[in-house]
């Protein structure tokens, strides 16, 4: 039986269970009878005109005399994704998303879905002029049910907005570490919260989704209703529909203690040793989290604790022993998730960015080998003064974090995490807007191949590739394991029978690429 509280929530936010959109798919402007144009550009133009006719001002196009087209264009975090789309449509309801999908179906136009555009892979939440974007930022409703502790969040919300709002109610939710990133892309890609060891992944916090399917129907899913869709969405991304509302479990206000300090990069052997030692300690202290972010000119170590103890937590002792500290950039602070996100977040200048991630078991010698590879490749890049920064981050995940999704009574997620102590190491290359893509991408490709080989040779490479940190060429879905790939394929075929999200979606970690 579905919990009556969740039923109540579903009822309050949409039409109950079957929740077939109450609005006619083609209202207010019929697109029946349209003949499908031949080229992608013509199809995008046809979709743009129909969207404009249906929704007027909420469709941003290049001929708008205000600055809105420029703002829409330049929203993505990486300037590699500042691509001019044929149109940016900003729906205010699931019914409007449904109408947009109908127009896309009728015109057979390519499209992308965008929450905040923080994914740096071009084409994931951006398109060129041969496609349109469904930009969800106006879907930013929030409501809270004190009976269940479940928050209903529109897909346009950011973590910063959600943390602040929930903390006003004395509640917390396990979301991203940065204020600006979107709830939507984070959760649908699994999502690694600041305190992943406490309650598992971001997607493990979901109790239900409201989804607009490719045929225009709006449906809900949970552990009891459409459990296959519910589980597949927990990591399976944009393969099945457009999620318009996330129902997330909240908890009593989480107090946090954190500090971020900079260390000398030439002390990397000791820093890596300390990172490995702290990770081992974390296996028995789920309240602890840290990151070790290695740059050419400094190493930033963030020590995060899900409580405000008087005494320094034992788990961070290895970091306290380091003698290479240059400066504390965030002195020890007692706060909350929202103050933590404000403290560690920063708004870097606009630039090009490309990322990839590798998951490995925890091993000092492997980390040292990776560091050496990173150093060698960094030496081939333009200097920091040119705006080039190739950095990597050690992100520790404990065995219990991997277990959390399976054990929380919601049927698990689609990520296929192995229950071992692991590091989701993320490599990020940031470079100037006029930087040479071919040169920078070639360096990243070499780095990827060599790091992967180093882990493989030692038998320490894990199949899992965290979707939120992955390069578009990484085999993300296969990394979830055979059973989950089967589930994702089945669910995509069942809920998107016409294959709209496979055929016309611009990019993503999609079944079509398996
Ligand atoms: C500064 C920074 C900090 C970050 N910190 C973390 C972190 O702590 N933990 C972590 O796991 N990740 C982190 N990330 C990665 C981030 O979670 C991913 O880039 C994520 O994809 C961003 O989601 P978004 O909604 O903001 O982005 P978008 O680029 O808008 O969307 C990402 C993908 O999700 C799809 N999508 C978005 N909304 C929907 C929807 N409603 N329905 C269907 N598909 C949808 C898009 O089509 C796209 O493929 C960080 C990224 C940055 C830039």
Automatic annotation (TrEMBL):
**UniProt KW keywords:** FAD, Flavoprotein, Oxidoreductase
Q: Could you tell me which Gene3D superfamilies the record lists for this protein? A: 3.30.465.10
Q: Name one GO molecular function term.
A: oxidoreductase activity
Is Flavoprotein among this UniProt entry's keywords? yes
Domain named FAD-binding PCMH-type: residues: 81-253
User: What family does this belong to?
Assistant: Belongs to the oxygen-dependent FAD-linked oxidoreductase family.
Name of the featured protein: FAD-binding PCMH-type domain-containing protein
Q: Which organism is it from?
A: Neurospora hispaniola
């Amino acid at each position: 039986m579905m919990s009556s509280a969740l039923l109540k929530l579903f009822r309050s936010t949409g039409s109950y269970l079957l929740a077939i959109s109450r609005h006619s798919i083609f209202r207010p402007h019929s697109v029946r009878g349209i003949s499908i144009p031949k080229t992608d550009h013509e199809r995008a133009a046809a979709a743009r005109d129909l969207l404009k006719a249906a929704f007027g001002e909420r469709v941003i196009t290049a001929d708008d005399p205000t600055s809105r087209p420029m703002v829409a264009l330049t929203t993505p975090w990486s300037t590699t994704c500042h691509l001019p789309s044929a149109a940016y449509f900003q729906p205010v309801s699931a019914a409007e998303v449904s109408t947009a999908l109908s127009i896309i179906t009728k015109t057979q136009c390519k499209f992308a879905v965008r929450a905040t555009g923080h994914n740096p892979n071009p084409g994931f939440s951006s398109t060129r002029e041969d496609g349109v974007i469904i930009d969800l930022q106006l879907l930013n409703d929030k409501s809270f049910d004190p009976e269940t502790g479940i928050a209903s969040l529109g897909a346009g919300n950011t973590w910063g907005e959600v943390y602040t709002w929930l903390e006003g109610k004395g509640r917390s939710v396990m979301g991203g570490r940065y204020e600006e990133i979107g709830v939507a892309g984070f959760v649908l890609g699994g999502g690694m919260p600041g305190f992943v060891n406490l309650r598992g992944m971001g997607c493990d916090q979901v109790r239900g989704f409201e989804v607009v399917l490719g045929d225009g129907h709006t449906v809900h899913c949970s552990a009891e209703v459409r459990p296959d869709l519910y589980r597949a969405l927990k990591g399976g991304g944009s393969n099945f529909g457009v999620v318009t509302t996330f129902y997330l479990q909240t908890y009593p206000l989480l107090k946090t203690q954190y500090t971020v300090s900079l260390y000398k990069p030439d002390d990397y052997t000791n820093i890596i040793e300390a990172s490995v030692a702290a990770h081992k300690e974390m296996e028995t202290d789920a309240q602890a989290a840290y990151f070790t972010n290695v740059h050419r000119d400094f190493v930033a170590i963030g020590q995060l604790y899900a409580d405000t103890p008087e005494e320094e937590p034992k788990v961070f002792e290895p970091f306290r022993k380091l003698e290479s500290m240059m400066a504390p950039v965030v002195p020890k602070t007692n706060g909350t998730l929202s103050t933590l996100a404000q403290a560690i977040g920063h708004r870097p200048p606009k630039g090009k960015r490309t990322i990839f991630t590798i998951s490995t078991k925890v091993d000092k010698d492997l980390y040292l080998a990776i560091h050496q590879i990173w150093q060698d490749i960094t030496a081939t890049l333009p200097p920091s003064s040119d705006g080039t920064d190739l950095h990597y981050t050690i992100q520790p995940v404990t065995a219990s974090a991997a277990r959390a999704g399976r054990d929380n009574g919601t049927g698990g997620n689609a990520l296929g995490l192995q229950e071992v102590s692991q590091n989701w190491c993320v490599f990020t290359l940031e470079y100037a807007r006029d930087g040479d893509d071919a040169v920078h991408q070639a360096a990243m490709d070499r780095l990827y191949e060599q790091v992967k080989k180093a882990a493989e040779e030692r038998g320490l490479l894990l199949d899992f590739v965290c979707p939120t940190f992955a390069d578009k060429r990484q085999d993300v879905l296969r990394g979830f394991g055979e059973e989950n790939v089967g589930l994702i394929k089945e669910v995509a075929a069942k809920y998107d029978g016409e294959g709209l999200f496979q055929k016309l979606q611009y990019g993503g970690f999609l079944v079509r690429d398996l």
